[in-house]
Amino acid sequence: MKKVGVAILGLGTVGGGTYRILTEKREMFRQVQKLDVSVEAVLEINRAKAEALGVPEGVLTASLDDVLNNPAVDIVVEVIGGVEPARTFILSALKRGKTVVTANKELISKYWYEIEAVAKEHRAGFYFEASCVGGVPIIRTLIDGMQANRIESMMGIINGTTNFILSKMANEGLDYGSVLRQAQESGFAEADPTSDVEGFDAAYKLSILSSLAFSAKVPLEEVYREGISGIDIKDINLGKELGYTLKLLGIGKNTEKGIECRVHPAFIPKSNPLASVDGSFNAVLLHGDSVDDIMLYGRGAGALPTGSAIVSDILYAAKQQEHYYTPFPNTKKADPATRFVTDFETRYYLRLTVADAVGVLSSISGVLGRHNVSVLVVEQRGEAKNGAAEIIFITHKTFENSIQAAIAELKKSDLVYAVNTLIRVED
Ligand code: HSE
């Protein structure tokens, strides 16, 4: 039976989950996978974490050299997170010809080109299923399950923290600040929530997933990004009344105009299957030209779900005759031949505070019309107060540049007291 020696760098949540799965299921992997997978080294300076998991003395080390010099280690699992020292550790392991498995989306989205070049040069494997959507096997689906397709689009909830926050705001009518505080207290959000709530985490994932789905390098800087920290509970409630649910979406499209990638909050109709993905769950809708729609749903984070993806990569890597490398040129910048769409087209929800006076609506409609923004719904919400009224517009499909130009003009109007909210509406 083939022996596979694994080293785990970092015993945090995911490292601990990976260790548990590997040790508790060793016999199952022998029986079913015909692989004898053993944990040969664990790099961790916090001995208490190692003791809690029952890592034997001889396996625990605080030295990367111990791991890299250990001939029994075939596969190195990097679960430290962040760019450094993870990048240096990964490159060092690959240079020794060791295959690397990682969950590190930030590192891949920024240094994939460098890591893959080193992996290829040293004929080592580089696998990263756990980097996107935790335990949901989306990368394997894209690479090994949808080869018969030109993937045309994906739309997903690819960040659990923001989905937890938005779901709780919607379900309990609470404002963003108090839900974030509760989420931090209960461990659903990090002490510094920036990466999640400002959409960076989702943008890292979308850059990786879009590159794989569209077989072209989509650098992080080509992903439009907007987070949820400015979301007002008032808009969630108004959206509900209009039949919409608010989600932070990652959207990737490959059209004849080019590749379009964006992360931002969006209203989706309640009938969209993503609308019922609640709490910290993730889900992605993929559309391929042969298979039609596929939806993947599951836990995007957590010790055992993400450990499940890591272990799947270990078993997959151990069985490869030749390692997988991306079929597109994995360069730092995009291929000059790849076109990107930045002036994307969608519908918009706009909430304005305006003067309560005759002719205001026609003046605003005039501004929108001059910028080719066509209105589908217009409603005044509540009674006017102190000479001001609140108006909501939902537009037909229009271009991002057009709505932005219209808003810039509205902001200059004496009749518009405030442009409160602009939220995209996706079908
Ligand atoms: N922090 C991420 C999330 C999980 O909230 O979905 C890891 O990417």
Question: What does this protein look like?
Answer:
- The mean pLDDT is 97.
- 43% of the residues are buried.
- The protein is α/β, with parallel strands linked by helices.
- It is elongated, with a radius of gyration of 24 Å.
- It is built from 15 helices and 17 strands.
- Strand 4 (75-78), helix 5 (86-95) and strand 5 form a beta-alpha-beta unit.
- The chain has helices at 13-24, 26-33, 47-53, 64-68, 86-95, 105-121, 138-145, 160-172, 176-185, 194-197, 200-214, 233-241, 303-319, 360-370, 400-412; strands at residues 2-9, 35-43, 60-61, 75-78, 99-102, 126-127, 151-157, 224-225, 244-255, 258-269, 281-288, 292-299, 345-355, 375-385, 388-395, 398-399, 416-425.
- It has three domains: 2-127, NAD(P)-binding Rossmann-like Domain (Rossmann fold, 3-Layer(aba) Sandwich); 143-299, Dihydrodipicolinate Reductase, domain 2, CATH 3.30.360.10; 345-425, ACT domain (Alpha-Beta Plaits).
- The strands form two sheets. Strands 7, 8, 9, 10, 11, 12, 13, 14, 15, 16 and 17 form an eleven-stranded mixed beta sheet that branches. A six-stranded parallel beta sheet has the order 3-2-1-4-5-6, with helices on both faces.
- Helix 5 runs parallel beside helix 6 (105-121) and helix 6 crosses helix 11.
- L-homoserine (HSE) is lined by residues 105, 159-161, 196, 201, 300-301.
